[in-house]
């Protein structure tokens, strides 16, 4: 195929884009107009950053500069501080976010950097007392001007716990502030758009007003005050500043998933290999293994789209009502869980996309390798996923205790009763093979699993801590497998519920029908993954469990052709897809071009 | 920690290496002396290639030049051809292997490149008739001198099926042979040591003697002859040439796994995070999730080590006895299955290693990212894993038919009887909770699963093809999920058996005890992964299934400290480990250094 032919295909696909389908609109949600506007700007080659942020350093650093540094300032600073440091960051200087230390990444509470107050000069002295206190993985550290540094606030030798300080690192000409050392950490697997380095402070003096003061401030003469008295609560309130960033990461993970799926689904509908004797080879999407590997991820991408929108709305409403996020611990838990689930799901999805596109998927020009390498770190940064799952479960345990009116013994009795009624109800479901294809069966199943895991974890912890007097850390650690299982069960349940709600509210019948199939697939896939657990708990019989498998295979087969419509309705501009195997020509790699697939259903209608 | 201290640690660990433990010897197997010699050479900085191969192009291309090009020549060529093209490849010129085409990767039988015989000049005319016939992903294509090219051998307009031809691509000065075009495919996710490109032939003439003639040759006047009459069998015989390469790939995958595990296990024993209140933080290996993520992979690495040795011995014996590999289809199937299992297992293992080492694991200096990116392609090249699994199952189905004496009806009756006796025996096992920790229980379980899946697949295929008269391709395709499940069940069973045999034969009691635990863990992990299937088939009761889970958790906990000894006994020279977080200093990344962990058991004895 020559280039002129490629361009025609490209133009046709662009023309298609100009009128988004009703499903594309529905997937965009409330802000589709804004999104369309952004797509147009991107497609016209207007640098995205110019439109949104004025003069900004190049793209990938955006997350660090605005999301992390800016997030710290807006969430932890006073109104005056926001004005001073957040607005200018978009035009005058660049920031960085210095929380993680060599010795403390996940366990932020244990950071060792010190900020000692000196009343005589009204300054804080920021200091790195040992190797373990070095600030590590700091994005933008080799260029940035200011850092939001988390350090133990020390007044008269007493620590008030971690607080956040604005520390000048370099002036506008790049000259280092005396006492600050920055070391480049050099090469990483991905995210090459951001440098990462180490910051070391040797008694660096900053004005008293550089302490972000929303949750704690120090008077000129060294008196500490905070709206949150309890030290532990205060610390948690500060960590809540990370919630919007984590949601942002979820959005990025979903975007990567979608891009991977667009590429893999399109190629699977173009590429042919093997087939019945003496006939044309079949499209590789026709191979059972191929659609089984891709379709559940496509369903999950849709579920995550709706769930993330739900979380974002909740957050918006909270912020509009002037609520402070740190009081909304269930939102924090939801976002922590979403962050873990979406980033892992993204990695698994991209890996399948890579393998399903074979050697072509290994070539950089087809995008998947870079997507994988860039988003790999998502699962351990901004809160390691295993830690995130524990955040979820701590909230679930709190909710559980609250429900029981703080009476654990009474709780156990109620629990037992509820457990019995669950068993009766579910045995009925378990034996009725016909119901497994029903949305309500799937919703009940994932909800049952969450509830049982929650109850049994509470009981186990109670026995270990209260009866056997085990140290809490040990008790918790010996249940970690249970904990992570519960957290994922929780987030799975939420995604299925949000997907089901979105299906229910979908106004266009055709879209409703299509989304219903994907929603059933998502639910079936969740139950299928955990069918051993359901069998162990007599929620599924061996016969219904096999039925679930059959249903998985059947649903994946059923949606494989419609997948092409769904990935098209993700409505990603061609210039963002780029991958030649997805039908978007790239003059650097003409050899990789496959013309965009025709929709098999539309094609068969002609 | 300063560098002199780092060097001391480094020297100590090198000193340790000089006297390998009995376990290290046992893991090395029969050829430990050769391996020790190679280690010494590597540690002394002698370039590996000099010692083994004389003047050779740099390392990573070794696989392409010797393994692939060389493999084609030695396995498909006549003795004279071997002398002419294999020996010189190590000193005079470099080769490449051109099988895959744009249109045909997995389905090699469908390749379109043509080799037409012209009796008047006694030449073959090698030609690329269309875009789909372009040879793709050819390693060393931008530099190599000769290519072993697979093409349809055409005599008087009739195709004799794919054959392999030696085609000169460039002379020694790099000047292209007329009619040959090479296009660079440029950037890939990994394996940057080998270039990959496209080869296109425009009526390139080569002498008649350049057809590798072991399985087919053409006389001067154009008469074709072959020792294998059946075209399909002849084709399969040629594909058998890939068997040694696939085994080589398995060895590489295991090496990558081991390296990843050395790094992750050591770091997990040094790095501390979280802990009981007011006490020192614990080593991260103490977190239940951490040891659950790493230990099953360590067990699998051991199982694969012994299984690969078994396959290599079988191959050696076959070759020594002068057997032709293509007649040993069960060996071919074993190697195909091992290739798929080991390369997937390696990817999963490296991903866990990356995540378990957090941000440090994302830094290139700590090696894991490059290991991941380089070995990612293993799962789709030299035979896509999904295709490999089908190779395994085709052999299993053949064996099954053979066992039944070709009488499918009689077979079904026998099958049913055997199935009943299985059920009786296993119900007994299923209900006896105490037996699940027993090696023989685990061996029986994995063997039962393989047998049942084999039987039921045969029945399903029989019903679809014989009774319902479905096209074989469609019948097979609709069972692909079953097929891949059976293939993995087969290879899982073989790895567990080979591991158990190695444990049995281990002469040193202490090592025997240690290996027993890892072997139990490997078996437990295999059954745990498939516990849903066992529950569905009443092989496990809900109670025994939970027992399997408990056993998994317990075994992982039990071996987490001994893991340090095992990774040390992999006996990989420090200069090959390099990763600073594993305690091997690297002057380029002093900041990443963690001193090598002390063995917790040894330490506690002091």
Describe the structure.
Two copies of one chain form a homodimer. By secondary structure, the first copy, chain A, is of the alpha+beta class. Chain A is about 55% helix and about 10% strand. Chain A is built from 23 helices and eleven strands. Chain A has helices at about 5-15, 20-30, 30-45, 50-55, 60-75, 80-90, 230-240, 245-270, 290-320, 330-355, 360, 370-375, 385-405, 410-430, 440-465, 470-480, 480-505, 510-530, 530-535, 540-560, 565-570, 575, 600-605, and strands at about 95-100, 115-120, 125, 135-140, 145-155, 160-170, 180-185, 195-200, 205, 215-220, 225. In chain A, strands 1, 2, 3, 5, 6 and 9 form a six-stranded mixed β-sheet that branches. A three-stranded antiparallel β-sheet of chain A has the order 4-8-7, with no helix packed on it. In chain A, strands 10-11 form a two-stranded antiparallel ribbon. In chain A, strand 10 (about 215-220) and strand 11 form a beta hairpin. The longest helix of chain A has about 35 residues, at about 290-320. The radius of gyration of chain A is 26 Å and the shape is globular. The two termini of chain A are about 25 Å apart. Residues about 1-15, about 45-60 and about 410-435 of chain A have low confidence and may be disordered. The interface between A and B is large, with 79 and 79 residues. Chains A, B: InterPro entries: ACOX_C_alpha1, Acyl-CoA_Oxase/DH_mid-dom, Acyl-CoA_Oxase/DH_mid-dom_sf, Acyl-CoA_oxidase, Acyl-CoA_oxidase_C, AcylCo_DH-like_C, AcylCoA_DH/oxidase_NM_dom_sf.
């Amino acid at each position: 195929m020559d280039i002129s032919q490629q361009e025609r295909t490209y133009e046709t696909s662009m023309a298609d884009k100009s009128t988004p389908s009703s499903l594309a609109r529905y997937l965009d949600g409330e802000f589709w107009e804004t999104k369309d506007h952004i797509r147009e700007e991107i497609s016209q080659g207007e640098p995205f950053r110019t439109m949104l942020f004025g003069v900004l350093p190049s793209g990938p650093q955006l997350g660090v500069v605005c999301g992390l540094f800016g997030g710290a300032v807006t969430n932890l600073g006073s109104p005056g501080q926001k004005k001073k440091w957040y607005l200018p960051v978009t035009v005058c200087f660049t920031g960085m976010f210095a929380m993680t230390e060599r010795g403390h990444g996940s366990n932020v509470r244990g950071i060792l950097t010190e900020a000692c107050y000196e009343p005589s000069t009204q300054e804080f002295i920021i200091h790195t007392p040992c190797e373990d206190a070095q600030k590590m993985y700091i994005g933008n550290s080799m260029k940035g001007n200011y850092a939001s540094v988390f350090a133990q606030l020390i007044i008269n030798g007493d620590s008030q716990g971690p607080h956040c300080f604005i520390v000048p690192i370099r002036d506008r000409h790049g000259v280092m502030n005396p006492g600050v050392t920055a070391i480049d950490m050099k090469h990483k697997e991905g995210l090459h758009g951001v440098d990462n380095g180490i910051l070391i402070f040797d008694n660096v003096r900053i004005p008293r007003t550089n302490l972000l003061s929303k949750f704690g401030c120090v008077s000129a003469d060294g008196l500490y005050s905070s709206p949150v008295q309890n030290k532990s609560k205060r610390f948690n309130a500060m960590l809540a500043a990370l919630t919007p960033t984590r949601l942002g990461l979820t959005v990025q993970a979903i975007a990567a998933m979608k891009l991977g799926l667009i590429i893999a689904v399109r190629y699977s509908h173009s590429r042919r290999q093997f087939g019945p004797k003496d006939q044309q080879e079949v499209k590789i999407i026709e191979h059972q293994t191929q659609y089984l590997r891709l379709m559940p991820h496509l369903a999950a991408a849709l579920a995550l789209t709706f769930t993330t929108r739900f979380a974002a709305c909740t957050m918006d409403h909270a912020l509009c009502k002037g609520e402070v996020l740190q009081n909304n611990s269930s939102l924090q838990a939801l976002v922590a869980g979403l962050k873990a689930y979406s980033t892992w799901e993204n990695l698994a999805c991209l890996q399948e996309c890579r393998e399903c596109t074979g050697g072509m998927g290994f070539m950089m020009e087809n995008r998947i390798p870079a997507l994988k390498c860039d988003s790999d770190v998502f699962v351990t940064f901004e809160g390691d996923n295993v830690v995130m799952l524990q955040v979820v479960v701590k909230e679930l345990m709190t909710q559980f205790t609250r429900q029981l009116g703080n009476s654990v013994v009474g709780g156990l009795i109620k629990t037992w009763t509820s457990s019995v009624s669950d068993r009766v109800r579910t045995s009925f479901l378990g034996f009725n093979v016909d119901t497994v294809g029903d949305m309500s069966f799937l919703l009940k199943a994932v909800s049952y699993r969450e509830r049982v895991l929650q109850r049994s974890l509470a009981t186990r912890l109670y026995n270990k801590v209260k009866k056997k007097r085990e140290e809490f850390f040990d008790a918790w650690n010996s249940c970690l497998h249970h904990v992570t299982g519960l957290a994922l069960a929780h987030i799975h349940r939420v995604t299925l519920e949000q997907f089901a709600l979105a299906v229910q509210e979908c106004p266009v019948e055709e879209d409703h029908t299509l989304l219903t199939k994907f929603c059933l697939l998502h639910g079936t896939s969740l139950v299928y993954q955990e069918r051993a657990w359901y069998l162990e708990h007599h929620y599924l019989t061996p016969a219904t469990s096999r039925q679930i498998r059959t249903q998985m295979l059947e649903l994946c087969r059923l949606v494989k052709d419609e997948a092409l419509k769904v990935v098209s309705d993700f409505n990603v501009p061609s210039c963002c897809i780029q991958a030649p195997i997805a039908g978007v020509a790239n003059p650097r790699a003409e050899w990789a071009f496959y013309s965009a697939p025709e929709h098999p259903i539309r094609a068969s209608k002609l």
